């Protein structure tokens, strides 16, 4: 038995023994795969990426958003991009987006940002990603002046990424919805970025946490821009993250129409506050999603 056959057989056996749901190659009529943002199991991925990928595949996950790219070394989870791609290929898995560390270069000059974008493009192309995603800004960067300058930077990055044949997206947290004298940072991003260059990855937990709008309202106002979703639940008491179905967000009512959204990929995520362990939480969320939400996306 060769290595590829062994990996596939091992994952298939684990899936049938641990999880009762059929693991189809595609998720629903529109072809969505069950996705996981790998930050959810970040410590496990950094400790043993191959074993972790086997485990999450057994839970039903087929597609991933990666985190933790090292541009100087060209590595993901401490492994060269080519080696990590081989792990995915051998297991029959895919990665469609990556969160890349743009925020430290927010005040850098254009040459430094362009160099970093090119490194991200090289890593993304090796993994076969469809999107390069801006995921975060540090607390000291979340000012009105920053948000006023940000759309031009996002447009410039988006143009460079598009020229390489990839997509570029911005991922929201809650701070984008804070009021700055009548405008929010997200208002500025929506209004002043080019929809052809800058797509949006909607983190529904943070939209609901902010309380100023809803996923359905955002999609109604800006149809077609939200090409990716993050789906995670909110603890009923602490408002921290929690497993799907264990919190206060009723996604049976909250999920927007995927066609109106422009949805291409979605990822379940839990960044902390695990009831047992990150892997157990990923399994519990996958089970809830498959039982209650999968058909609503189509």
UniProtKB/TrEMBL annotation:
The keyword Cell membrane does not apply. It comes from the Bacteria. InterPro entries: IolE/XylAMocC-like, Xyl_isomerase-like_sf, Xyl_isomerase-like_TIM-brl. SUPFAM superfamilies: Xylose isomerase-like. Keywords: Isomerase. Residues 53-255 form the Xylose isomerase-like TIM barrel domain. It holds the Pfam family AP_endonuc_2. One of its GO terms (molecular function) is isomerase activity. This is Xylose isomerase.
